[in-house]
């Protein structure tokens, strides 16, 4: 039986389909050793993120994922502009539901299916909800998605199309999460949370494995947007596994980007704090990263500091300008995803620095 361990007090729990946080309030991690990375196994799997199946905490003969996958992962890594040959974009909006959240959702829902779950609940600012709803549909698992009544209508339409039941809430992102968590506890169902459930990060870590294969090595720097930190932590864990297996000789530096109007992690970083204090969201067009109280803030700050990385915050007009600039280069991203390029434009890079910028969500998802 797999175990969870609390990230704050280190209490252990049997992994069941209803547990989602520690009684102390802390977030849970999976109890496991660093996986042994056997690259020769990768070609035994389809060309998707499931190439790295054997690094994930599933039993080796588990086949559940085969009926859940929609071919997610292995997104292109492209030089953004020939005049900067060391700067790449990873086009993670080329996924079944048009955002990188499919990486985490497919692994999380494969686990839910393996556990025999019949209903899941999730809360989201949009893309995680879309991804969970799609994979829940694929698994024949009932799904309720809690979201803000101000969520982009295109994301709501996408979630509805997958047959999920939408719970629209008028309130802050934190109030919406609380409503979902109350429902999880009273209905005793699986909380398919991209924030709390550590299986989600087993999916997002494949972002690192793919970059490693595509570059035949490690980049110097990862630009990563951060709200709840699901891509940031996944990328960190993935490269850490490669490092601990001796496949790379250094960790890439993580440069984390937040919208200035909702930047609790930037504030904590600047003040030398171990974890972030909740702030008030002053409103940002980057709806996908408008997280005022990130539950895994301690892990995010640790990851950035351990890689000698840094934080950058961007203003609303810088975000819109970056979105326009990317479109001029042929890449149409949603507003949230332009934050990454806006952050890159403010980052003082060294000559020849090899940098990867993710394009996280497709342009047609937002206004
Ligand atoms: C979810 C998301 C992010 C940020 O991810 P976090 O897990 O909140 O850090 C960034 N961009 C897009 C398009 C997203 O969907
Ligand atoms: Zn605890």
Task: Describe the structure concisely for a colleague.
The chain has 367 residues and is an alpha/beta fold. It has twelve helices and 13 strands. The protein folds into three domains: 31 residues, no CATH class; 190 residues, Rossmann fold; 91 residues, Rossmann fold.
| Morphology | globular
Written as H for each helix and E for each strand, in order along the chain, the element string is EEEHEEHEHEHEHEHHEHEHHEHHE
Annotation field: number of helices? 12
Largest sheet: 6 strands, mixed
The first-to-last residue Cα distance is: 45 Å
Give the low-confidence spans: none
Mean pLDDT: 97
* Tally of individual domains: 3
Structural class label? alpha/beta
For the record, the CATH architecture of the largest domain stands as 3-Layer(aba) Sandwich
Number of strands: 13
CATH topology of the largest domain: Rossmann fold
Write up this protein.
This protein is an alpha/beta fold and 367 residues long. Helix content is 35%, strand content 16%. It contains twelve helices and 13 strands. Helix 2 (101-114) packs parallel to helix 3, helix 3 runs parallel beside helix 4 and helix 11 (316-328) packs across helix 12 (335-346). It binds pyridoxal-5'-phosphate and zinc ion (ZN). Pyridoxal-5'-phosphate binds next to helix 8 and helix 12.
């Amino acid at each position: 039986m797999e175990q969870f361990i609390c990230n704050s007090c280190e209490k252990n729990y049997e992994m069941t389909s209803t547990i989602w946080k520690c009684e102390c309030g802390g977030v849970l991690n999976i109890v496991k050793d660093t996986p042994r990375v056997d690259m020769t196994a990768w070609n035994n799997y389809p060309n998707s993120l499931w190439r790295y199946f054997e690094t994930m905490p599933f039993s080796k003969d588990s086949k559940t994922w085969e009926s859940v996958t929609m071919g997610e992962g292995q997104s292109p890594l492209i030089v953004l502009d020939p005049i900067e040959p060391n700067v790449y974009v990873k086009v993670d909006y080329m996924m079944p539901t048009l955002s990188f959240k499919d990486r985490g959702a497919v692994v999380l829902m494969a686990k839910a299916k393996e556990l025999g779950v019949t209903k899941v609940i999730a809360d989201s600012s949009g893309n995680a909800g879309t991804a969970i709803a799609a994979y829940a549909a694929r698994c024949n698992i009932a799904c309720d998605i809690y979201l803000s009544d101000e969520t982009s209508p295109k994301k709501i339409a996408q979630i509805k199309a997958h047959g999920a039941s939408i719970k629209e809430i008028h309130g802050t992102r934190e109030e919406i999460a609380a409503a979902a968590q109350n429902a999880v506890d009273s209905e005793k169902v699986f909380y398919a949370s991209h924030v709390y459930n550590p299986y989600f990060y087993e999916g997002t870590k494949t972002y690192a494995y793919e970059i490693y294969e595509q570059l035949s090595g490690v980049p110097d720097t990862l630009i990563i947007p951060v709200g709840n930190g699901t891509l940031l932590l996944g990328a960190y864990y993935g490269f850490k596994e490669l490092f601990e297996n001796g496949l790379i000789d250094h960790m890439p530096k993580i440069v984390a980007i937040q919208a200035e109007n909702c930047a609790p992690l930037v504030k904590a970083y600047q003040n030398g704090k171990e974890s972030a204090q909740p702030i008030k969201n002053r409103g940002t067009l980057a709806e996908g990263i408008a997280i005022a109280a990130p539950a895994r803030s301690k892990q995010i700050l640790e990851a950035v500091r351990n890689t000698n990385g840094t934080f950058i915050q961007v203003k609303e007009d810088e975000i819109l300008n970056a979105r326009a600039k990317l479109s001029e280069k042929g890449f149409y991203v949603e507003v949230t995803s332009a934050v990454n390029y806006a952050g890159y434009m403010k980052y003082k890079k060294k000559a020849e620095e090899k940098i990867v910028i993710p394009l996280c969500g497709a342009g047609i998802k937002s206004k």
